[in-house]
Design goal:
By secondary structure, this protein is mainly α. The protein is 82% helix and 0% strand. The chain has one domain. It has helices at 16-43, 46-67, 73-104, 110-131, 139-168, 172-214. Helix 1 (16-43) packs antiparallel against helix 2 (46-67), helix 1 (16-43) runs antiparallel to helix 4 (110-131) and helix 3 (73-104) packs antiparallel against helix 6 (172-214). The chain is globular. The chain starts with 15 loop residues before the first helix and ends with a helix.
Amino acid sequence: MACNCSHEPAPIKPDSRFRTALWIALVINLAMFMVEVMGGMYANSAALWADALDFFGDAANYAISLAVLGASLYWRATVALIKGVTMALFGFVVIAKVAYNYMQGIPPEAITMGGIGVLALIANVIAAVILYRFRDGDSNMQSVWLCSRNDAIGNVAVIFAALGVFGTGSMLPDIIVAVIMAGLGLSAGYQVIKKSLIERQQNITTEKTAKTTCS
């Protein structure tokens, strides 16, 4: 007789509306990531690059949320590991950008910086509104809504940095915001990497235990 051991519970059938909302939020965040990377280069703003890191992290988070709707724990953790490594690497790129801007001593172009900051805030509000109906769902649904809601704080910080640059002519507001946001990106990347490695190992251990029990 064949052994019929269940290694992990079957995934719940995903809500099609939630899947659609995730795709919309994913497209919005990927688009804003590209806008802020190019805008950061044009305006010489490290804060915009740091906010781009946040948009990239969100896009990866939504992509993972889409992937986990039907994936096993091992593959969820593997994709999360890739996300964490990429977020950490981009965080180091932002830190390098901060150092480069500081050595150049050239303040960013405040008008472009502020305009993109406002656009980013609008984008995050739209994503949050789209995901609002899922705020009381499971942890996965709650996390993606809170992600967009909390990102508005970073967008406001970029706008204030632009106002600070415009008012003082100094690059320090841009540098300070960029360092803080890059630090948060590095911390988030580290946490994702750490948790994904633990989950991968737990899954491997569970599979080995299940196979031993079945044999």
